[in-house]
Design goal:
Elements (H helix, E strand, L loop, with lengths): L1 H12 L31 E2 L8 E2 L9 E7 L5 E7 L6 H4 L6 E8 L2 E2 L3 E2 L9 E9 L2 E8 L6 E8 L2 E7 L12 E4 L2 E6 L9 E8 L2 E2 L3 E2 L9 E6 L5 E8 L2 E10 L2 E2 L3 E5 L2 E6 L5 E9 L2 E10 L4
Antiparallel strand pairs: 1-21, 2-24, 3-4, 4-5, 5-6, 5-7, 8-9, 9-10, 10-11, 12-13, 13-14, 14-15, 14-16, 17-18, 18-19, 19-20, 19-21, 22-23, 23-24
């Protein structure tokens, strides 16, 4: 607790000209144990013959902290994810620890490089950012931040290699009960507990017409009485990947579009697997949470390589 308080004071004391950079691994509890697949009591289970068995990404991506919510850009060159060093600390403690937030790793010669912090708040001001999505030079993210009540959606622009000019998104439906989103062409896919829905969360889609967000519609063909969310669309728009509660834990499903209609989803990976994203080669990335007797210990980003 003293360490968290110290980092909070350091963060809030920084000047308006610079951010405080803290090595994200330095804040991981000293007694934390890095869980390996051999130690995992509930490993991800593959249900498709199109992929190799899932494996965790090698360092420097995964640590004994929690790497979560992966997103790979359309060109496959950047991997964004959410990180926090200790999952046992509630959000109000994470916001001031100096390291919890969004990170990006860039690919070089086929290998993911050391992740760097993505700053989406002015120096000296607190925020807890996540739900990151980017296309071309614009990004969307959800945030709980200083001066706001609750969670809001913001956008940012890439200028000179840095995300800048963040501002709040104002369509009313994005400010209420909206989770992770994915934008494909002029369609915004997202999950929400809004009514009328089929389950705890459903996947919805809203058209962008002339820059104006239209009323969202429920994608009934892919939704169930369970929680369905965290959507991802392939670049051709013909596959919708998402997370569904399956036998009590998150699992990854895929729906294929046929004759412009989404088909019944099929299970791809089960048992604490969720938030799918893909690279241009069709390799499947997702988060795997490690649990022991109902308690989450940490989280890693896994990949299931597509078979040739």
């Amino acid at each position: 607790m003293r360490l968290i308080l110290l980092l909070f004071l350091v963060l809030t004391a920084c000047t308006a000209q610079e951010h405080v950079f803290i090595d994200r691994e330095s804040v991981i509890p000293s007694d934390a144990v890095k869980i390996t697949p051999e130690m995992d009591k509930h490993p991800p289970v593959l249900h498709s013959d199109q992929f190799e068995e899932p494996v965790p990404l090698a360092p420097p991506i995964n640590t004994a902290g929690a790497e979560d919510s992966p997103f790979i850009t359309a060109d496959g060159r950047e991997l964004y994810f959410f990180y926090t060093p200790d999952v046992s600390i509630p959000a109000e403690g994470q916001v001031g620890d100096g390291v919890t937030g969004i990170y990006v790793s860039k690919q070089l010669n086929g290998a993911w490089q050391t992740p760097e912090r993505v700053w989406l708040q002015d120096p000296g001001k607190l925020s807890l950012d996540g739900c990151f999505f980017a296309r071309n030079t614009q990004s969307w993210f959800c945030t709980a931040r200083e001066g706001y009540t609750g969670i809001h959606w913001f956008t940012a622009r890439m200028i000179d290699g840095v995300w800048q000019d963040w501002e709040e998104v104002h369509p009313s439906w994005l400010l209420k009960e909206v989770g992770e989103l994915h934008i494909w062409n002029d369609q915004i896919y997202f999950h929400s507990s809004r009514s009328p829905g089929l389950g705890n969360y459903d996947i919805w889609m809203a058209e962008l017409a002339g820059g104006v967000v239209q009323e969202p519609v429920n994608i009934e063909a892919v939704n169930s009485q369970e929680s369905d969310g965290w959507p991802y669309l392939t670049e051709d728009g013909n596959e919708l990947w998402f997370t569904r509660t399956y036998r009590g834990t998150p699992g990854i499903f895929r729906s294929v579009k046929d004759d412009d209609e989404w088909q019944a989803p099929e299970l791809i990976v089960s048992q604490f697997a969720g938030e799918p994203t893909m690279d241009p080669e069709g390799n499947l990335y997702f988060v795997h949470h490690f649990y022991d007797e109902g308690v989450m210990l940490e989280a890693d980003i896994y990949v299931a390589y597509r078979k040739n």
